Amino acid sequence: MEIRIDGLSHDGQGVGRHDGVACFVPGALPGERVTVRLVHRARRHWLTSLEEVLTVSPARRRPPCILADHCGGCSLQHLVDAQQAHWKEQRVREALERIGGLATPVAAVITAPAALGYRNRAIIPLERRPDGRLRAGYYRRGTHRIVNMSRCPVLDPRLDALIAPLKADLDTSGWPVDRELAGPGGLRHLALRIGHHSGEVLLTLVSSHPDLDQLPRWAERWQQRWPQLVGVTLNLQPQPTNTLLGAETELVAGRSWLAERFCGLELRIASDTFFQVNTPQAERVVPLLLQALEGVNPGLLVDAYCGIGTFSLPLAQAGWRVHGLERNPEAVRLAALNAAVNGLAAVASFEAGEVGTLLPSWLPRCQALFLDPPRRGLDGAVLAALQASPPPCSST
After folding, report:
1. Is residue 157 part of a domain?
2. Whole-angstrom Cα distance, residue 139 to residue 147?
3. Residue ranges, the chain, pLDDT below 70
4. Which of 34, 186, 234, 254 is the most buried if burial means most Cβ atoms within 10 Å?
5. Among residues 353, 354, 288, 362, which one has the least CA distance to residue 322?
């Protein structure tokens, strides 16, 4: 059937209506008239497939990646960058006004310096085909079927250049690959991380078990081939879930962390700890935080979900006494180490535990609160604590 696309969903699908029922159309853009095939009727909407674009949006472009129409890693490469920024801004405004009921002004999106080649981390699913050949790539939208790839233009080019040769080595290694744990187990993902400024690289193999024959020899070979590769680790994820990384990471060669410069500070980042994937864009956040804190006498600032101290330490350097809360004990260990490396241990402390449990005792003592929660947002315990004891100044 033919419908008109009026908007975009949160995950970049075109949204139109048929007989008053919303239709989600992957690949369609606002302003376009399209022919779609109805695929599945949910309770309140239709899922469809795009058959033909009858009226083409002037904002449509040829995607920079040749796999964009198949790979589910990106959803809006067919939309020009300026319109991507517009629709992201619109999504924020709608969330605040329609869902939150807040009449909060929304500033224009501060777009990244580079639309491609910025991502400093990749976790790439692996599989072996029935003929034994290894495939690596992201999932096709809505499936667990891998779209085989040898490069990804969203990645930092220095990481991108490693995918094809590493994929070839994993193919010839003879190691079992069992991503879905349908058999006895094996490799599940290839993880790469780079310091944007330092150029140091960490390579992590994610496996359900440690029985990878000659892994130390392969790691030594990789480090000789790529001097920027400062460490090779093995992460064990034996659980039959979609969780990408397990709780245990073993050092195979080199060191378990890379060094990176961030806002003039030296940070140590491990393969299994969170760090913003777009380093230059994350550095642009710090001046905005300091601007939000103007007029507040620097005192105690609580950084909830602090990670390795990414934002805690620049704020401490600016004169705040910072206390970070973080669930991941390894991240807390690195945050304390990063504070010591930068001479900030006297004004920056960190604590491991559930933020919702730790935060209530700190709120009455702090002058400011910074929240950088995981993608799922703030849990009920954190919201209850904020309602019971709001800090004088908060920034999210």
Report:
1. yes
2. 6
3. 393-396
4. 34
5. 362
Phi, then psi, of 341 in degrees rounded to 5: -60, -35
Helices 215-225/157-172 angle, 10° precision = 140
CB atoms within 10 A of CB 174: 10
Order of strands across the sheet with 248-254? 134-136, 121-128, 187-194, 201-207, 229-236, 248-254
Q: Does residue 322 contact residue 301 with C-beta atoms inside 8 Å?
A: yes
Output the domain CATH number for residue 71. Answer: 2.40.50.140
Type of residue found at 287: P
* Residue 296 lies inside a defined structural domain of this protein: yes
| pLDDT score, position 141 | 84
Percent helix, strand, coil in the chain, to 5, is 25, 30, 45
Q: Based on the domain organization, do 150 and 204 belong to the same domain?
A: yes
Domain count, the chain: 3
DSSP state of 384: H
Identity (one letter) of the amino acid at 7? G
For the CA atoms of the chain, what is the radius of gyration? 23
* Those residues with Cβ within 8 angstroms of residue 393's Cβ, 6 or more apart along the chain or in another chain: 292, 293, 296, 367, 368, 369
In a domain, 103, yes or no: no
Domain contains 55? yes
173 shares a domain with 254: yes
Two tokens, residue 254: 């080199």
Q: CATH number, domain at 337?
A: 3.40.50.150
**Domain interval for residue 331:** 284-395
The predicted structure's pLDDT at residue 394: 61
